[in-house]
Amino acid sequence: ELSGELSLTMKVRATEGRLFFEQQPAGAQNFKLFVRDGDRPARVLIDPTKLEIDGKHVSLDWWEPAVSGRHVAYGLSPAGSEASTAHVLEVESGKILETRIPNTDYGITGWLPDGAGFFYIQFIGERGTPTFYWDSVVKLHLRRGLYEQIPMKEIQVGVVRPVAGTSQAVVEVRDARPERAVWTVQLPELLAGKPRFRAVASADELVVDVAATGDDLFLISNRDRPRGRVLVTSIENPSLATATEVLPQSALVADDVYPIRGGALVRMMDGGVQRLMRVSRREAASSVPLPFEGSIRGVFSS
Q: How far, in Å, CA of 66 to CA of 116, rounded?
């Protein structure tokens, strides 16, 4: 009875002139996707309670707007199955484009800077079998065995994330572990099918999160630092050997890193309470004041 009177916000994304957020309004039974254009009141873009797939109720599994805010890619699944099919919506008109991409349970990993397309993870195994998650592909385009420089095991997943405001992208290979292998690449080369991947870290380097802004690539590394430290290197010429330490290991645990202009935010665990630190190549690390102590469920940066 009490929680039903609360408005719960799950995710926020800021784009050029628009703010997107997924929220369960007070008294509602489901989350909906809203958009706010400048100073205009927020409007509903996607309301799963008004949709059906084969006569079954629908869930909004994931969504991501283009950098321009003109389009949103999102996944819908029937009856709580999480078996997502990707759709694309034109924000201004509310028109749903003809694009339908099945088996996109993990969603997209990033839009191209000009909004002409996006990278997405697609599963190609038979749904309902143990091999469904084997040999997944990242389209626009990355699959196991496609590039010799990117070794992948059958259960691993590739991620390609364009870096906002640049022609660069960060490539990761992940599995169930938090550690991941990392490369950087020029987007035009990747799209032309002739990428020159620049190695940043193997899984043995124990990098557990990365964030990129401008030419700075921030990494949380647990190598010889079990509570984590934050390093920064160049996207164009990455090197862990010469990376600069911008946040040393401390009594706190470094959980996640998020890009902001000129630096990054780091979510830290302090004995059950979470803190937020700001790091930069040019300035000393500093603490971000919070309104009260508690858990930070999500950080949404632009």
A: 9
Which residues, in sequence order, are CB contacts of 225 under 8 Å at separation 6+?
249
User: What are the tokens at 118?
Assistant: 């996006």
Q: Are 288 and 269 in contact (CB under 8 A)?
A: no
> Which residue is associated with the tokens 């999160």?
209
To which residue do tokens 């009260």 refer?
A: 292
Counting Cβ atoms within 10 Å, is residue 279 exposed (0-12), middle (13-18) or buried (19+)? Answer: buried
Task: Order the strands of the 168-174 sheet from edge to edge.
Answer: 157-162, 168-174, 181-186, 198-201
> Do residues 30 and 8 make contact, with C-beta atoms less than 8 angstroms apart?
no
233: closest CA among 189, 170, 180? 170
Report the DSSP pairing between strands 198-201 and 181-186: antiparallel
For 95-144, how does the pLDDT look when each residue is reduced to its tens digit (9 = 90+)? 999 999 999 999 999 999 988 899 999 999 999 998 999 999 999 766 78
Q: What is the DSSP letter of 142?
A: B
d(CA 88, CA 18): 17
Residues contacting 167, CB < 8 A, separation 6+: 113, 186, 187, 188
The torsion angles phi and psi of 206, rounded to 5 degrees, stand at 60, 40
Please state, in angstroms and rounded to a whole number, the distance separating the CA atoms of residues 32 and 44.
Answer: 7
Question: 3 falls in which pLDDT band (50, 70, 90)?
Answer: low
Q: Which positions ≥6 away from 49 have C-beta within 8 Å?
A: 28, 29, 30, 32, 57
In whole angstroms, give the CA distance from residue 285 to residue 263: 10
Rounded distance between C-alpha atoms, residue 134 and residue 224, angstroms: 32
> What sections of the chain are H helices per DSSP?
187-191
60's enclosing H/E stretch is strand 56-65
**What are the structure tokens assigned to 287, written together?**
């603490």
